[in-house]
Write a structure and sequence with these properties.
D-Maltodextrin-Binding Protein, domain 2, 11 strands, six-stranded mixed β-sheet, 2 domains, alpha/beta
């Protein structure tokens, strides 16, 4: 090697070494920052956006978990109801929020239904990081107690004898309750008229008054009315009977095989959240779900607590998106 070559070898070697040292240092620094962010998380109140009006079944489930997370975080979990457009308004707010774990979105089955039937301002799978599946449970097909149908087979027989004369209420066009009604019509081969309302409270009021005949509604929203005899539970929409009301048959076993509209609730956050923060958040939720008091309150509202990892919840959401894409195609459900 010439003297000139030797003169260049050492400086180049030092430069290369310096580059790799900087990369290693940067990587270690990034890991240190990520770990540090988890240690101080949360450092201010955590906003949980519930993309539904206050007082409904989703709001109840969200507030129950929020109340358990507050003491674990040492920061207030603030419930922020942003109802409208079948949950799209609240969901879009979270999609645009900073991915630091201080903004959460309470989601339900309608989150995956929207992907199948609407043009959305966000990517259902790509814009969010799943945190945890909170719980699952059935909706209930309920009837006005004066309707001359005490069982699901009797309702089907009545609807077939009076095509277009029996109606069902929903909380709005292309929402979960509308999906349930249209799927039921398709599988039971009946002709019922859809009557949409602006929210579950209005629909339930009209049902109890007898101005509509039946509706699909969450267990948490109908329990008190069912106990008081203001509505009659005909069937639950899950594949298995509810542990809260085991005397109510499933839609499938009562005469409509293949019907499954299990409802669920979970928490997601903007994509890009640091992994240590996501892990800390997931751990806090799983510990809260293991609380006997929360499990009791969830069960009283017809919800079976689930929990699990972010990866498990992400795979679940993907399956739900595919499921409702197939259902919407089958029943012709689409919103421009």
């Amino acid at each position: 090697m010439s003297d000139q070559a030797r003169q260049w070898t050492w400086p180049v070697g030092l430069v290369v070494y310096g580059v790799f040292a900087c990369i290693a240092s940067g990587s270690a620094g990034a890991q240190s920052l990520a770990a540090g962010s988890a240690q101080v998380y949360p450092n201010r109140p955590v906003r949980m956006i519930v993309a539904f009006p206050p007082g409904g079944g989703n709001d109840i489930i969200a507030r129950l978990i929020g109340a358990r997370l507050t003491p674990r975080f040492g920061q207030q979990v603030v419930i922020d109801n942003r109802g409208g457009a079948s949950g799209i308004i609240g969901t879009d707010i979270v999609a645009r929020a900073a991915p630091d774990g201080h903004t959460l979105l309470f989601v339900s089955v309608s989150h995956t239904m929207n992907e199948a039937i609407r043009k959305l301002p966000y990517d259902t799978l790509g814009s969010f990081a799943p945190v945890a599946l909170l719980g699952r449970g059935p909706n209930v097909l309920v009837a006005n107690p004066n309707l001359p149908a005490r069982t699901l087979p009797e309702l089907i027989a009545l609807a077939k004898s009076k095509p277009g004369k029996i109606n069902y209420a929903s909380t709005g066009v292309a929402g979960m309750h509308h999906f349930g009604g249209e799927l039921f019509k398709d599988l039971a081969h009946v002709n019922m008229v859809h009557v949409p309302y602006k929210g579950g409270s209005a629909a339930m009021t009209e049902l109890m008054a007898g101005r509509v005949h039946v509706m699909f509604e969450s267990m948490s929203s109908i329990i008190q009315h069912h106990r008081a005899g203001r509505v009659r539970g005909l069937a639950v929409t899950s594949p298995k009977r509810s542990s809260s009301y085991p005397d109510i048959p499933t839609v499938a076993e009562a005469g409509v095989p293949g019907f499954d509209m299990t409802v669920w609730a979970g928490l997601i956050t903007p994509v890009g959240i640091p992994k240590p923060v996501l892990a800390k958040l997931n751990d806090a939720i799983n510990k809260a779900l293991a609380s006997p008091s929360l499990r009791e309150r969830y069960a009283a509202n017809g919800v079976d607590p689930v929990g699990g990892t972010p990866e498990e919840f992400g795979a679940f959401i993907k399956r739900e998106v595919e499921k409702y894409a197939a259902i919407s195609k089958k029943i012709g459900m689409k919103v421009d």
